[in-house]
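Long-time lurker. I teach an intro course on protein structure, and each term I like to show students one example going from raw sequence to a predicted 3D structure in token notation. This year I'd like something fresh instead of my usual example. Would anyone be willing to generate the tokens for the chain below so I can use it in lecture? Attribution to the forum is fine with me.
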Amino acid sequence: MFSKGSFLAFAIVTVLLATTANTCLAEFEYQDIMGVCQPCYYRCLTCQDSSTSCISCIPEYYLDLGSETCTPCIKGCGQCTTNSDCQLCNDGFFLNDNGTCSVCVVGASTCTISITSQCQATYYMLAGICARCLANCSNCTGPTTCDQCLSGFYLVSNTACLICGSNCAACNSSSLCLTCNVGYYPTSG
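-- Reply from a regular --
Happy to contribute to a lecture. Here you go:
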């Protein structure tokens, strides 16, 4: 028969097993031999039997089947099958013919084979490259025009972004504040 102490220990283990059984996250956890959910190694998306026995990997890592570990892809690669075979490059990189990732030109957010297809904010497309907008301009279509200014600045004749007044977060002009900085409130513009 059970002693009072051993019965209590048995009851606690039984409750733990009952509350943890089959409740592990499908990703990032596995169930140990006691039925308790344990975290996978940080590079594993899914794992089994131990934290380092990976089944699949997080982005920018690939599964080395021999060791069941997640190994880093080459620089700039978001999805690969081996260290030298990238299928998908991260933003700011493009995929070369040899399965590696090269950096896009400055200011490009997406590009293919060194041809820019989209520019980052504060840049505009100029003959296949990204050129910087006017100072304090967040969106433009050319070197001397601005469509929208950065926060805290206002647009003047689509050619310049001037700073808003003191303690003003957003404005239409130097004298008309739309939103104040934290701790301030609008009074007569």
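Some talking points for your students: Confidence is low (pLDDT under 50) at residues 1-21. The chain is about 10% helix and 40% strand.
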